[in-house]
Q: What sequence folds into this?
């Protein structure tokens, strides 16, 4: 038995103790592969992801299987990246140092966004990525790859704060500009595309959009792919029922099974004779 903290970019994997500890991208390939085989690569995870067993039962079975294999984990804390408990890289690194000094092993498991980009490249499809600035700064290599492979980029605020819709228009303006400048510094991209958190619009958002000369983009097909209790096949079927010319499909690239869901959607689009386009192509928006 040894102490461990599991950081999963795509979603909370084991939630016996959801107190948050954010850990940095620190692991070795051998350990990561071992942990992956016992978790996301296991039959238990497939049942959990398909909604056939509960999150608690799935996690319990994975831990029991790990113990039987002699690789037991004492999971002290799990943090999902999008909760934003800690915001800066400095604080992450400091926390990692403190955790390691207390005997914790630190694992980073997720490669989901890279898998999504691999699939898009394989299919020759370009998409539009609305990026959270704080995440972009933690994963600059992803931002550069998105830009290099011809995808559109947009602003999804600095940290996707839960209270963003209630802020003043000036606070929203500063947030949007901060994210825009971050993307410019990281990958040299210029963008005026903006998607507000949760798709919420109000007079304050409208003022901030006008001040920043942004183009507010919503969606016409909401997939609800963030609900992990639903199988990816069920989400793909929901999307299929709502397809039509000129529809904008909302997907997230940081959820378990994101690449599998995207493959299902792209296969269905091809089967039904639909083409794909970026937001700028669809709405004939000139890039800055």
A:
């Amino acid at each position: 038995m040894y102490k461990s903290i599991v950081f999963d970019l795509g979603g909370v994997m084991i939630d016996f103790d959801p107190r948050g500890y954010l850990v940095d991208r620190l692991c070795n390939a051998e350990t990561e592969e071992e942990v992956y085989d016992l978790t996301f690569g296991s039959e238990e995870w497939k049942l959990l992801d398909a909604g056939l067993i509960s999150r608690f039962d799935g996690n319990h079975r994975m831990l029991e299987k790990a113990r039987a294999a002699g690789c037991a984990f004492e999971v002290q804390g799990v943090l999902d990246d999008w909760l934003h408990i800690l915001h800066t890289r400095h604080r992450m690194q400091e926390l990692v140092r403190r955790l390691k000094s207390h005997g914790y092993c630190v694992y980073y498991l997720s490669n989901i966004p890279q898998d999504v980009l691999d699939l898009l490249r394989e299919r020759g499809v370009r998409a539009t990525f609305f990026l959270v600035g704080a995440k972009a700064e933690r994963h600059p290599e992803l931002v550069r790859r998105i830009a290099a492979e011809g995808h559109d980029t947009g602003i999804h605020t600095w940290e996707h704060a839960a209270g963003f819709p209630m802020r003043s228009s000036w606070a929203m303006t500063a947030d949007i500009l901060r994210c825009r400048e971050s993307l410019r510094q990281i990958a040299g991209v210029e963008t005026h595309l903006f998607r507000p958190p949760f798709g919420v619009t109000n007079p304050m958002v409208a003022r901030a959009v006008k001040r920043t000369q942004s183009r507010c983009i919503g969606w016409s097909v909401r997939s609800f792919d963030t609900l992990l209790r639903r199988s990816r096949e069920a989400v793909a079927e929901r999307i299929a029922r709502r397809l039509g010319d000129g529809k904008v499909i909302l997907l997230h690239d940081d959820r378990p099974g994101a690449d599998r869901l995207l493959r299902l959607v792209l296969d269905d689009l091809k089967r039904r004779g639909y083409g794909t386009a970026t937001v700028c192509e669809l709405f004939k928006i000139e890039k800055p």
